[in-house]
Write a structure and sequence with these properties.
The protein is an alpha/beta fold. The protein folds into 3 domains: 383 residues, TIM Barrel, CATH 3.20.20; 153 residues, no CATH class; 83 residues, Sandwich (Immunoglobulin-like). The chain has 18 helices and 31 strands. The longest helix has 21 residues.
Length: 650
């Protein structure tokens, strides 16, 4: 990949860079990158990706990714000044879901295939009047990221908002139920025909939202024979009439609600299937229209069983026995639904030039028997999306949201087998869910390194995600953030992932106000414990930001010469989780030696079987750059708590 340098911005607080006038941000970018940027501002052009010539999808096995919830920074444009604060080693950008949201404005509940208009930047349009739609602005931002040497990923979400335009325009691609008060009275396969007739009756009674397409007489003519783009106009109106489409969809929701018709909610964790209304009074929700909704629960739950009421999963398989017992027939895929999802994501990638997909809920594997010995092409939807897009553009990669849980915990069977069967190239993993230096963290890290050597996918060294930026997980990040970042940068043969805000996150021994947690901007909640009252507030941990800035500068200096090099362990992570020191260099020609103390509370003495004449001290993650004479590889080398050291070959 191309290399860029933004050293001048590393020690700046991200909020400071983002709040600068757009004219100044443009000048900074022009000074850094020059004329290569000019063509990127043409939304009719697609600039060549930095990995366009790479071997198919292998590149993501060592990519370092920044995950960005655009809602926290305001617009697609603001991704660019934020990335000025990141080193070239962080060469990939994952943009959290980009589509119009539905219930509670959740980014992970897409309400349509239209790009979220809240991510439009009026200042950008003022300077470039041709960039007058959010789609054009997204295209230009992806172009610019490519021009500056970075790859860009989109979320692929295998579900939608429960009353999304996708579901209302394509009822056969979703599963439906009928509820009366606290009881599900129907959930059979034939119910979808009633839903189609009901929606068509609404259109006949209230008229089409747009009269240009003629209205077929039968549900089959409307829902199957009429092209979807025309059907969407009839049901909701014109694409850019945001408020008109919302009012129309709300009216259809009311029409279906009055008849007890809902999409079946998405679920997570075995046994996945079997729903009932949760009778708990706290499971009752009244929306802004005065409609009463009930949460659902799994009839016979296991430890990780979850039901996501605002979301509905695509109906990918026919059911057994007319869905009497909520069982699926995995030998009968709903092929038109698969094709629908795959072709839509294919079109999105083509339009905007995305390089990889982050597959949401990649851990879902619903077959009680586990992963089949010979998975077919209808095994996994996310894998099918990857295959469809890669047929057009082979470098397209799949980064999975999977946590490498024990078998039969979050998925039936072995999650590693599932990732391989679903064509995942890399996965998030779960190192972000343990404090650095804990036995659990170290032993899991050792397991991930073994998986890296033995499996077809690469487990990630993940520092921090939007899901973990939540008061429940504050204890994971009270200390050790410098050494987390150090490992992510300099483990050159392993992917890494870091959510926005990690670099200046304040320690929270007690929960902070909700506005300081980016997780709570994945949705909008007006009341209750997850509500927010204003914009996202950046942490003010300037000490951490400064310490990571020093690491970023070092990475820009040394990473180009060791990029993608295999790691040669001198002290590997301990599978038992007891030993807290690590040391490694590069296989083949060893240019740099890295040493890390994962114990964030105690200093440690370390001896390495390396000649004290071979290496000279280069860097410490602490602010005290002690001289080389105090940091030679000798018996008695002392590492401070949570310290990382770098030596270079003499």
């Amino acid at each position: 990949m191309n290399r860029i340098s933004s050293v001048a911005f590393f020690d700046s607080h991200p909020e400071q860079v983002l709040s600068a006038p757009i004219e100044l941000q443009l000048k900074w970018m022009e000074d850094l990158y020059g004329a290569i940027l000019y063509d990127a501002f043409d939304p009719e052009r697609t600039l060549k990706s930095p990995i366009a010539d790479d071997a198919p999808s292998h590149w993501i096995r060592t990519a370092k990714t920044v995950g960005i919830n655009v809602r926290t920074i305001g617009s697609f444009w603001h991704i660019l000044p934020y990335m000025l604060t990141q080193p070239a080693a962080y060469n990939a950008v994952h943009i959290l879901p980009i589509w119009e949201p539905g219930v509670v404005a959740s980014l992970y509940g897409p309400a349509s295939w239209n790009i979220n208009p809240e991510f439009f930047n009026t200042d950008l349009q003022r300077l470039f009047p041709a960039l007058d739609t959010v789609e054009k602005q997204l295209k230009v931002v992806v172009n610019l990221l490519h021009a500056t040497g970075r790859v860009v990923g989109m979320d692929v979400v295998p579900h939608t908002d429960r009353y999304s335009e996708m579901a209302l325009a394509n009822p056969r691609f979703f599963e439906w139920l009928q509820r009366v008060d606290h009881e599900i009275v129907r959930h059979d396969d034939d119910l979808v025909a009633d839903v189609e007739r009901c929606i068509l009756d609404f259109v006949r009674q209230f008229g089409p939202a747009d009269t240009r397409p003629s209205l077929p007489d039968t549900p089959e003519g409307f829902f199957i024979q009429m092209p979807e783009n025309e059907r969407l106009k009839v049901l909701f109106g014109q694409k850019y009439d945001y408020q008109g489409r919302l009012r129309r969809r709300n009216a259809i929701v009311q029409w279906l609600y009055d008849r007890g018709l809902e999409t079946a909610p998405a679920t997570m964790g075995p046994p996945y299937r079997g729903l009932e209304v949760d009778p708990n009074p706290a499971a009752r929700v009244i929306d802004d229209e005065g409609r009463e909704w009930r949460d659902y629960r799994i009839t016979y739950p296991q430890s990780m069983s979850r039901v996501f009421g605002p979301l509905s999963r695509y109906r990918l398989y026919e059911s057994l026995d007319n869905n009497r017992d909520w069982a699926l027939d995995f030998d009968r895929p709903n092929k038109t639904a698969w094709d629908y999802v795959c072709q839509h994501y294919r079109a999105v990638r083509t339009e905007f030039g995305f390089d990889f997909m982050r597959g949401d809920m990649s851990h879902v594997q619903m077959r009680p028997g586990g992963v089949p010995a010979q998975p077919d092409e209808w095994y996994d939807l996310l894998g099918a999306v990857k295959k469809t897009i890669a047929a057009d553009w082979p470098p397209f990669a799949y980064f999975a949201e999977s946590f490498l849980a024990p078998p039969d915990t979050m998925a039936y069977g072995d999650e590693c087998d599932h990732l391989e069967a679903s064509r995942a190239d890399a996965t998030l993993g779960n190192l972000q869910s343990e404090p650095v230096g804990s036995p659990e963290f170290i032993s899991e890290f050792a397991r991930y390194r073994n998986l890296l050597d033995t499996r077809k996918f690469a487990p990630g060294f993940t520092l921090f995600t939007a899901d973990k930026d939540d008061p429940r997980f504050d204890s994971y990040y009270l200390d050790g953030n410098e050494i987390r970042y150090f490992l992510s940068l300099f483990l050159t043969d392993m992917p890494a992932y870091m959510g926005l805000g990690f670099e200046c996150r304040d320690p929270h021994p007690e929960p902070a106000p909700n506005e300081f947690y980016s997780k709570l901007y994945v949705f909008y909640v007006k009341d209750g414990p997850k509500s927010t009252r204003g914009p996202y507030q950046w942490g003010q941990n300037h000490t951490l930001n400064h310490r990571l800035a020093r690491q970023k500068s070092l990475a820009d200096q040394i990473c180009p010469s060791i990029d993608g090099a295999s790691v040669k362990w001198l002290i590997p992570p301990d599978p038992e989780g007891r030993k807290k020191c690590l040391a490694w260099t590069q296989s083949g020609e060893s240019r740099y030696l890295f040493v890390a103390n994962l114990d964030t509370r105690q200093a440690t003495d370390l001896a390495l079987d390396e000649s004290d004449q071979s290496w000279r001290f280069l860097f410490s993650t602490t602010d005290d750059d002690k001289g080389a004479n105090q940091h030679r590889i000798l018996p008695g080398l002392r590492l401070l708590p949570g310290e990382g050291l770098v030596f270079e070959k003499k």
